[in-house]
Amino acid sequence: MQINKPSSHNIALFIALLFHTCGVVGILCSPYKQWFVNNTPLTLAIMAVLLMVTQPQKNKWFYVFLGLSVATGLVVEITGVNTGFLFGQYTYGRVLGVKIAGVPLLIGINWFTIVYCCGCMVYQFEEWMQKKLTGQVKFSSTLQGIAFAMDAALLTTLFDWVLEPVAIKLGFWQWQHNVVPLFNYVCWFGVSIALLLAFRKLPFNKHNQFAVHLFTIQVLFFLALQTFL
């Protein structure tokens, strides 16, 4: 009898489900809520590592996009926190760990995680749609690129909308007057479009199934906390 070894995708999916399930239960149903909240940086770091491990056919362009996403995320967040010109008036708490110019380093990594997951999800969905519509509708490559960037940017913005109430309650960051401005979502959409155009243009494999599953897990995680917290 031959026993198949679990793939890196299956192992990563198990770890993601384990961490997020334990997180929901720990935050909502245990007396150790703050311990689970304080370990958020560990979870975010592990999820980013799992995305890199499960990335098929890794090449230099994948790492270029990784570096570009982290650097862009940090630059726009530092600008936002210190000037208010981007996103609005907000400050980060201590939960997310070590900061540079008022912004946790993990925020840059989280920009990569969110944009990459949304990019993979929309890219694979659009490929599926193209196969279904083969011979029926034809679009130029430019139009396809613009549509992809806008669709995926909308998805990242919706993710932030789901995340915001939970992040505020858990002390990740705070907004002036405890109100999330519409400008925050406008900036999320704009910055995401720029990164997603790079995502589509750079020649690396965009068929990471774990990225699709991780996005779904995280949305369900924050929806559960938003509902019951």
Question: Could you explain how this protein is built, in words?
Answer:
The protein has 229 residues and is mostly helical. It has one domain. The protein is 72% helix and 4% strand. The protein has eight helices and four strands. β2 (99-100) and β3 form a beta hairpin. α4 (60-83) runs antiparallel to α7 (182-201) and α5 packs across α8. The longest helix has 30 residues, at 141-170. It is globular. It starts with 7 loop residues before the first helix and ends with a helix. The relative contact order is 0.17.
Radius of gyration: 18 Å
Tell me how many strands there are.
4
The helical percent reads over 70%
Oligomer: single chain
As residue ranges, the low-confidence spans are none
Mean pLDDT: 93
Within the largest sheet, what's the order of strands? 1-4
Order of helices and strands: HHHHEEEHHEHH
Rough shape? globular
Strand content: under 5%
Count of DSSP H/I helices: 8
